[in-house]
Give the backbone structure.
Amino acid sequence: MRKFIAPLFFLVFSPLLAAAQNSAPEALPIVDTIPAARDVAWPGVITESVDATDVTRAIFHITETIPVAEAGPLTLLYAKWLPGNHSPSGQIPELAGLKFSADGKSLPWRRDPVDVFAFHLEVPKGASSIEAQFEFLAPTDTTQGRIVTTPDMLNLQWIAVTLFPAGYYVRQIKMEASLKLPEGWKAATALEVAGNEGATIHFKQVSLDTLVDSPVFAGANVRVETLAPGVRLNIVADQPEQLAATEEQLQSHRNLVTQAVKLFGAQHYDHYDFLLALSDRQGGIGLEHHRSSEDGVTGNYFTEWKDNSSRRDLLPHEYTHSWNGKYRRPADLWTPDFRTPMQDSLLWVYEGQTQFWGYVLAARSGLLSNEETLGALANIAAHLDTDSGRKWRPLTDTTDDPIISQRRPKGWRSWQRSEDYYNEGLLIWLDADSLIRELSKAPAPWMILRAPSLG
Ligand SMILES: [Zn+2]
């Protein structure tokens, strides 16, 4: 019997003993198999067709044909780091229904285990292209994100509907895009049109960085006004009567262009389209691009003009970004492929100075009165005076807030601070402007607003 007791004892207690003797877990190395972006051309032109007719369900159907030069592994990316958002806020949860094929045969795919914005597949021998089919399930409720389709309008951002090959600077990937809209709708975009085929618009070939920088507003109710040669105001509205901008209102928008050209001494674009949505259903927006801006305000922007002064620095702000932010960008913010992390250290220049010139141009154009502008500046200063978070968090640290908070609501806004590089940044540039004027004996800083002598 004794012979049995010892092995039984060991058998029962051995797991505990073994646990005591085990070493701690060791970390597996992170293996990055996604090729780094190189400044070389992707061979061939990717064609992308987006069917945006399903506006009631807010589903965009996408087909891409990606030419391939050789068999072997191929990694496709979905944008993670979004220009203008300055953060890893790519809408990957909304990508669905993904299918790949070559010569009609379905191809298996695997999401990268480390970077969930990347998809791996194998190009079969003899294939000259890969077809990708997928959907972008745009938010159907504000709890999921910004609403971008309604029964009367849509806002297409190509960055949300495009897969592209890893390993290349996006400026080196050529794209030919087309967009199918609901019957009778009109589109506005900085993209140039190659031709129309029924309700489908074919755009001229552009590089991928230009495509994603050229969103589309479209709708049933559209009005287009030329503000200056090469500069258009494209208005899309929930209802046709909301398009009724008065001559005086339009003149302020024309003045905006005239004043910006005087201010900057140049136009940093070959043409420019303001994309202005007047809607109480589509989500508001202010997003800069080099040749356009996405500007979303409430439906009564023109029809109840007097009550809507608070959003009238929007267009001047986004327009200024064509230069400060797009034509010129902080070196650590510029990245080649929407995958490399952006660094936001200079947003006090990118956004702070743009905020400053936005108000100056709003006043000079007449979009805001001098009094409204000075009131807005005073409001900013008063807020910052009582912003308790300034005691622990320096302005420069707030430039990382887009990455840290991604604009989620905050419980203790004043103590946590937020994207204060906008308005505290504005005050730095107001101070710089005042100093330059003082030392050069130029008119006092408040004269930077709409003064007849400055035109
Ligand atoms: Zn901005």
